[in-house]
Request: fold
Amino acid sequence: MTDETTGPITGKRVTVFYGNFGGGKTELAINYAVHQAVRHARAVLVDADNVTPFFRSRDVANDLEKLGVSVVAPEDEIRKADLPVLTPAVLGVLANPGAQAVFDVGGNEWGARLIGSLAGRFPEDELDALFVVNTRRPFSRNVAEVLSSMELISRAARMKPTAVVNSTNLGRLTSFDMILEGLDLVEQAAAAAGLKVAFSTCPEWLAEKREGFFERGGRLFFAIRRFMAPPWE
Amino acid sequence: MGELILMKGNEAVAEAAIMAGCRFFAGYPITPQNEIPEYMAKRMFAAGGTFVQAESEIAAINMVYGAAGAGARAMTSSSSPGISLKQEGISYLAGSELPAVICNMQRAGPGLGGIQSAQGDYFQATKGGGHGDYRMVTFGPSTVQELVEVCVDAFDIADRYRNPVMILGDAVLGQMMEPVDLDQAKVKPAPAKPWATTGAKGRKPNIINSLYLQPEVCEKMDYHLQEKYREIEKNEVRVEEVYLDDAEVVGVAYGTPARLVRAAVEKLRDAGLKAGMIRPITLWPFPSASFEKVVAGTAAEAGTGNRVKSFFVVEMSSGQLLEDVRLAVAGRRPIYFHGRMGGMLPEPEVVLAEMRRLLTDPAAVGGEYGLNYVVPALKPEAVAVAVAGAVHARGAGDMGGTGGGAR
Reply:
């Protein structure tokens, strides 16, 4: 039986979400950090997105603090910048065996380069390196594109994925069938890379619960609550 | 209908350009538009075209000049400071009558400004940022889907009138992701370009030029351009009119602020209040006729829009779109303005509250947020002067006719 609080192949101390631009990494990382905070009383979310200075987890840091998640990101005048900056707090998080850490990495190979600079510092035995794929995004539309993105991004991150996450979504127009359709493609790509699919994301309005993991039809899903809505919604 | 995919504005405009037959792109990196050249770098080669990361913005626009002169559908993109660097090249494109598409995902200014969303380049785009008497068709789309559609339209208009066309977006529009249906874009094939420098074997050489040392010849060229601009004003206005049939207060905005105004209008309608909206999709040519429709006529002429009591302009700048609205309204109604700058977005609550107050208690309008001011309506005797001035400024006067005579 699946442990529905962690998923069968995730739940380690440090979780890294990386992949193409716009795959849903930020919402996933935020929700996962909130989930970890529920399980462990506290969690740290490392906002390692330095390529797109918009729609980043640091923008909702105050809301997350209330949910038990500390956000680590450059502060003060460079908070809104797109400079390749990692604060020393990141090394503290990696070295501290008590810290539950979630890394939200910037998109594509350019975003992944930042964690590449931390190669050798991630605790190998305590690491879930999850490659995130949204098959409704450009450059993730077929198995060949997914594999080629995975190759480029893993190389830049200097980190091989331990599993793949299916985050197929179309924002507000996501349907459950669409997620399953994406899962087929992601499973094929993962198999070709010798990996397993850890879980699929599912927006909360299609999910059986607001937070955490749930099973449906023998498949594992993780509920996503939206934190980053545009101001007019 | 095609399959929906999730795209960032920047990716969508790049894909739409390739769909429209763009086979030459030159650009130089600047936030917040980097996904455009990045996407082009990944896709253009497979599409059989050429992508160049130029050594500067100036080089990029001049490479586009060269490619356009040789007959290619060509494009460059940048963000505000980079677009300033391209102004000379844009003037040369206009002077040489070359079709090209330039995309500006605006950020805050002046100077280096900031990398968040702003709309301070409205004047630069619509009033001629470069030198000389030229005009540039300027689109101000407000959704990712619309970015796709105007991009395809932009290449078509550029070719049809042999003129540069700008897509004036902003950082939020470039960065936000929305589902798009690429099949909705109506791609038209590029027309034949017998004027292009495609190799002069067996024919007289074509010359691409904007230099006319004899003033008589240069003026003739200028008149020709002006006639072309009048044609564009006649044929290429794009606008969305929302609830104008019975609107009492009309919001005016383009790009990202239009999303906020639209949301406010819908909420006010739900509350039974008569809010409406004019959303210019082309910023030049400006949809003056939409304003004329709702301010002309007397109270006795029901249905001519005389119910409109005032306009409410919202911008991420200090009142640039506002000037075109003032020209169109010509003192016949008061115009209320709310603007934010520096990369700050107008707050949805403020936009909604101000518009609600305009409908229910106009005397109380004017909050403590952002730049708010009121352009009062003129006294009736002054309106005639203002209307005449606006008509002249819109170029609907007799200048074209004189020009025809002078040629």
